[in-house]
UniProtKB/TrEMBL annotation:
This is Amidase domain-containing protein. PANTHER family: AMIDASE DOMAIN-CONTAINING PROTEIN (PTHR11895:SF67), TRANSAMIDASE (PTHR11895). Transmembrane segments: none annotated. It comes from the Eukaryota. Residues 173-431, 450-551 form the Amidase domain. It holds the Pfam family Amidase.
Length: 587
């Protein structure tokens, strides 16, 4: 087993593991002790890692220290590998839903979603509650003539310019073409003037993470080289329906380089700041997408979620983060950085807006006999849902979800191996200096994983799939915190090099892995604030294809949290973005 190896774990068969509240399964905490490293220290660390002999030895010791060898690579696992997290269609009964007709257009599905919405929640709670504008706020204002897509686009561009200036330096976008934004807005305004908007999304601003193809922009993946190496020829499958619905595609949102981090710190395009506190991280890797929604610039943005990369920044920025079941949204036109764990996701200011965007972009291209039914939640029903069994992800309550740290490490091996394999044809001919320092560390670690580690990771995926299927026999939804920490401080020494902060990184991803590794639908909503006033997110994980149930539950939690906030604020809400964005309607 090698000079530095400790005894590897021997797993008992998954069927013998007790998943009940009295289980004696031992939870292993992340063995992350390395101090935060940034600036010159990151450069020194990279130089050591890339040395021919010393580098591999250092990587071996690092993997030993964080238990990858013991719990994954060298472990004795009885189950065979499970290489993908796809799920066959199961007709799981869901309460208070509308079954959409097959073969509807994106605009028709949006109309179906709009018919599921309740009356405006703010109006039922308090007069004068100041909130971000929703999709329906914009749609109604456009129809009534209160404002136009052109006027909103002008204010949006002015706000982006203000936020990008030296006073704020929010780094929301990698690319934002004012001429293209205005062209789309002018076309939308003409449709409203003619009384023929395409859908409720017509004229509504939507940001797109720069990991997703969206014309006329290159797709950089947060790098300064990938956009030139891989041309963008067409809109991604999740972008084209939004364009067909008339949405104004606002630009390419910033992201952590290659998605290889959780902070949103990007040395090439700027580090996205959290609108709740500009001295805090926005989270990643869909950092810009979360921040633009939080700041009120766009009611909706698209992200990509390979290891919580939609839901983590959503939680840190206090917005909704929604990752449907693997296969529900198409990956066509998304950078193939992680084939078996990544997929597009939605960030939105409200659950209602997440529902509308979801209805537009859901993949209906599969043959009818393979296509899962699409249920939309009737959020306007009272009560919207009842008799739902929640399994809390804690040993002392209803269920035990074992081997959480083992799953995190197996996912890390999987996503890292897939990333380096996907990028190999570019990396082999690329100067290392083109890559950010922290990303170079990540790629060095990813490239060190063995085939044995990858295969054993898929065995652990099989075990976790079994555990979760068993839990879902007795519970409809698993509830957990979204992250183990709230937004932490953005430090100046990381701006040029990125940072290596494995303690905060492990805490951020702690509860997000099952959604990706097992392809399960998951959603996060804000449920409160910490002592510094920073958002806290709660996560709901569902059975495959149970998106409607998750949206129902998230909507109920959103309503409860809003009532509590209104009571505390005496009926008046002041959004964190008000001091940032002065010109957008609703702020």
């Amino acid at each position: 087993m090698g000079l530095f190896s400790s005894p590897a774990k021997v797993y008992k068969p998954a069927a013998e593991v007790d998943l009940g509240p009295g289980s004696d399964e031992f939870y292993i905490s992340p063995n992350v002790k390395a101090p935060r490293v940034a600036g010159l220290l990151v450069k020194i660390f990279v130089w050591i890692l890339e040395m021919p002999i010393i580098g591999p030895m250092m990587l071996y010791i690092l993997k030993k220290d964080n238990l990858i060898n013991k719990l994954v690579q060298d472990a004795d696992i009885p189950e065979p590998p499970l290489f993908t997290a796809t799920h066959s269609w199961e007709d799981t009964p869901e309460q208070n839903v509308s079954l959409t007709k097959p073969d509807l257009s994106p605009a028709e599905r949006v109309q179906e979603a709009v018919s599921c919405l309740p009356a405006r929640l703010e109006a039922t709670l308090a007069d004068g509650a100041l909130k971000r504008w929703t999709i329906m706020d914009f749609s109604n204002a456009y129809r009534s003539g209160e404002t136009t897509p052109v006027e909103v686009a002008k204010r949006f561009l002015a706000a982006v310019k203000e936020c990008s200036g030296p006073g704020l330096n929010m780094a929301f976008f990698i690319s934002c073409d004012p001429e293209d934004v205005m062209k789309q807005a002018e076309q939308s305004t003409r449709r409203y003037q003619q009384g023929a908007p395409l859908s409720a999304l017509d004229g509504v601003l939507v940001a797109v993470k720069d990991e997703i193809d969206c014309l006329p922009y290159p797709t950089t993946g947060g790098t300064r080289w990938l956009g030139g190496a891989r041309p963008c020829a067409a809109d991604a499958a999740c972008v084209a329906p939004l364009r067909a619905c008339g949405a104004v595609l606002a630009g390419k949102a910033n992201m952590h380089e290659l998605g290889a981090g959780t902070s949103g710190i990007n040395p090439h395009h700027g580090s996205t700041r959290n609108p709740y506190n500009v001295g805090k991280v926005a989270g990643g890797s869909s950092s810009g997408s979360a921040a633009v929604v939080c700041a009120g610039l766009c009611p909706v943005a698209l992200g990509v979620d390979g290891g919580g990369s939609v839901r983590m920044p959503a939680a840190l920025c206090g917005v909704v983060g929604f990752k449907p079941t693997a296969g529900r949204l198409s990956n066509q036109g998304v950078l193939p950085l992680n084939w078996t764990v990544g997929m597009p996701g939605i960030l939105a200011g409200t659950v209602e807006d997440a529902l509308i965007a979801y209805s537009a972009i859901v993949d209906q291209s599969q043959p009818s006999y393979l296509r899962p039914e699409l249920n939309l939640p009737l959020l306007n029903s009272t009560p919207s849902i009842s008799n739902v069994k929640l399994a809390k992800s804690a040993k002392t309550v209803e269920v035990t979800i074992p081997e959480i740290e083992e799953m995190r490490l197996a996912h890390y091996v999987t996503i890292g191996s897939e990333c380096t394999t996907s990028l190999a044809k570019y990396l082999d001919n690329l100067k290392r200096s083109e890559i950010g320092w922290d990303a170079r560390v990540a790629l060095s670690v990813y490239g060190s994983f063995s085939s044995r580690a990858y295969l054993n990771s898929q065995r652990l995926r099989n075990r976790q799939m079994y555990f979760h299927k068993q839990i879902f026999k007795t519970a409809d939804v698993i509830v957990s915190p979204m992250t183990g920490v709230t937004a932490y401080t953005l430090q100046d020494d990381a701006f040029q090099t990125g940072e290596l902060d494995y303690i905060n990184g492990a805490a951020l991803v702690r509860y997000s892995i099952a959604g990706n590794f097992l392809g399960l639908p998951a959603i996060t909503v804000m449920v409160g604030h910490d002592k510094e006033g920073l958002p806290i997110g709660l996560q709901f994980i569902g059975r495959p294809w149970s998106e409607a149930t998750l949206l129902h539950i998230a909507f109920a939690m959103q309503a409860r949290s809003l009532r509590q906030d209104l009571q505390k604020a005496g009926g008046f809400l002041q959004p964190p973005e008000e001091r940032l964005i002065k010109g957008i309607p609703g702020n």
